[in-house]
Design goal:
eight-stranded mixed beta sheet; alpha+beta; Nucleoside Triphosphate Pyrophosphohydrolase; 2 domains; manganese; about 30% strand; four-stranded antiparallel beta sheet
């Protein structure tokens, strides 16, 4: 089983510690494709209020007594519990596959180190949102979710955006599971750069990751908030 991944060294000794968390990318078959479950967080919530997210949340000590909260075992148990609480769905945590791990940028006041897991569901399972933290839900193909985001009908955060972008290139649940199994979970420790009205999220191999110079020539691996939502740029080099 995967072990907790070690985060790169922080550049800021004053950054808020990241709490262990887990989220489940829940897939179901649909019209020879597959759909992903997205939940709408209540607008009043301090973290990601008004955003569409995968089911998930903080890993609690009761999820895995005697285990590290950062561990894979704790993550899959916590993700299953959160899905039950938020969406009324009972899942088998032993069936989950590790997909990625994301840590909130240091500039944020509330930070999480979150396992992203792949899970599957029968087409006819009923979703019942808790009507507290979660106020609505949608089953969408990854491509449809991205289109709604571009049309400003679906607010999502960068981890969900990049996950949906990856899944949109796959044709079936089988391909999604095979893709997850073909790689080690990727650890993301993004950095946020705010420049005038633009926000960029940089990943570790981006040329500007350490110095914040967005115009510097070199590798681009970043998402930027534009008029049509998040836009991903990934190329080996750029003249700027």
């Amino acid at each position: 089983m995967p072990e907790p991944l070690n985060a790169p060294s922080s550049d800021s000794a004053a950054s808020v510690p990241a709490d262990p968390a887990a989220t489940i990318i829940l897939l179901r078959p649909a019209r020879q494709q597959f759909e992903v479950l997205l939940l709408l967080r209540a607008q009043a919530l301090k973290f990601a209020g008004g955003s569409w997210v995968f089911p998930g949340g903080r890993i609690e000590p009761d999820d895995a007594p005697g285990m590290l909260l950062e561990s894979w075992d704790a993550a899959r148990i916590g993700a299953a519990r959160e899905c039950q609480e938020e969406a009324g769905l009972t899942l088998d945590p032993d069936s989950f596959l590790p997909y990625s791990q994301w840590t909130t940028p240091e500039l944020e006041r509330r930070r999480f180190s979150t396992w992203f897991l792949i899970g599957c569901l029968d087409e006819d399972a009923e979703v019942i949102v808790d009507d507290g933290e979660i106020v609505d839900y949608q089953w969408l193909t990854p491509s449809a979710a991205l289109q709604k985001h571009r049309q400003q009908q679906l607010s999502i955060m960068p981890p969900a955006y990049l996950t949906l972008l990856e899944l949109s290139r796959l044709d079936s649940i089988e391909q999604a599971r095979a893709f997850a199994q073909s790689r080690e979970p990727i650890f993301y420790l993004p950095k946020m750069i705010k420049n005038d009205k633009e926000v960029s999220i940089l990943y570790a191999d981006d040329v500007a990751y350490h110095n914040g110079d967005l115009q510097q020539p070199g590798i681009r691996n970043r998402v930027t908030k534009g008029a049509q939502g998040w836009e991903y740029t990934h190329c080996p080099a750029s003249s700027g």
